[in-house]
């Protein structure tokens, strides 16, 4: 299981969310808090590297990266799929 704290650590590395991650709830919309399209690509790449996963094209929409909770659930699901 991927922990929320792991996702927060990755988010803290993004320039677009610098200084706001600690104040976010798990369900805050990251795009409303400063995440942009370039940042979402950086986030995807950082998550792939950190968790040794690959996002399929079907999960490359805005929704997959919209909240900390959704990111955690998406990454957890991908890790389970790759482990199977």
CATH topology title: Non-ribosomal Peptide Synthetase Peptidyl Carrier Protein, Chain A
Determine the mean pLDDT.
95
So what's the CATH class?
Mainly Alpha
Give the SSE order as H and E letters.
HHH
Spatial shape:
globular
Approximate strand percentage: under 5%
Q: What CATH architecture label applies? A: Orthogonal Bundle
Oligomer: single chain
**Structural classification:** mainly alpha
Give unreliable regions as ranges.
Answer: none
Task: Please outline the major beta sheet.
Answer: none
List keywords for this structure.
Non-ribosomal Peptide Synthetase Peptidyl Carrier Protein, Chain A; 84 residues; Acyl carrier protein
Structure description:
- The protein is an all-alpha fold.
- The protein has a single domain, classed as Non-ribosomal Peptide Synthetase Peptidyl Carrier Protein, Chain A (Orthogonal Bundle).
- Helices cover 48% and strands 0% of the residues.
- It is built from three helices and no strands.
- The two termini are 14 Å apart.
- The model has no long low-confidence stretch (mean pLDDT 95).
- This is Acyl carrier protein.
Compile the SSE list and pairings:
Layout: H1 4-12, H2 37-51, H3 68-83
Task: Describe the structure in brief.
This protein has 84 residues and is mainly α. It is built from 3 helices and no strands.
